[in-house]
Structures are given as structure tokens and as C-alpha cells.
Amino acid sequence: MEQTLILLKPDALQRAIVGEIVTRFERVGLKIVAAKVIKPTQEQYYHHYETIGKMISRRGQEVFDVTLRFMQEGPVLAMVLEGIEAVSLVRKMIGTTEPKSAQPGTIRGDFSHISFSYANKFGISIPNLIHASGSEEEAKQEIAHWFEPNEIFEYSTVHDKFTQGKP
Question: Domains (ranges, CATH) in the chain?
Fold first, then answer.
């Protein structure tokens, strides 16, 4: 079974919509195998966004700095979700990074709306609710960064037959 990391960002927690977002993942058949609310350090974010995600390399120092300030506005809910093709399924469910362009029915399309141009005009980060791993390799690196092996659980559910193809 494939695993992926999601971070429900400070705006999701501050808006009290965590339950709505998590429910979507559970309804589609993804299993929560790890979860914790944490207030990450600047070093943790640097490792996540630059060492793994190459944000500075791809988008520049200014975007990284704005993102880091935003992410430090409150705690995040870090979760590992497990399921068939979990990485691509979660990416499809959350919608594009720019909320304005995210399709209705996606998490970002339904719960956020700010555009890149608006955020850039005011020097703010886009409150887009959630981070999700972009590839299987990135998911493995991110999960190892955010969770110790003993924090990730294996268990069965009554839905495994229908959501994970298990007998």
C-alpha cells in the first residue's frame, strides 16, 4: 500500500475545517496511519521545503520566506495517509496549488480562493490549507522527516476489502 504525507496548514486549523478535510480522505478509502498536531521549527520547515522540496531552488528565497512566515502562524496537523495510489489520489483531491485555479469539488476549490497575483501584490503566502507529497519518492522522504517509524501504525478496518482490494 502506498503512503503519502499531508500537512493541514495553520489556516485549516484556524478556520476549524480540519474535520471536513479529513472526512473527505476517509470517505474515499484512505486510511490514517499516523497523525499529530505540532508547531514545527524553522529548521524542520527548511528541511521540508528546501532540502526535500527544493522551494528556494525552484521559486526563490522570497517565496520561501513568505511561506515560512505563514507556516509559523500556528500549529499544523501532520498525517500519513495510506491507500491504493495514495499520492496521486490525494493530489487530485486537494486541487492545484493556486486556490483560484482549483476546481470545485477539490479541497482548495471548495475552501479557498486567493490567487497568486493577489498574494504577490500584498507579499503574503497563499492560504491554501494543505500540503501533500508530490511524488512517491517525495512522500517517503517527507514521512521519514515528520514521523518516527514507531508513530506509524498498521491496522485493519472493516472497509479494507472495498478500499484497498484486500479479501
Answer: 2-147 (3.30.70.141)
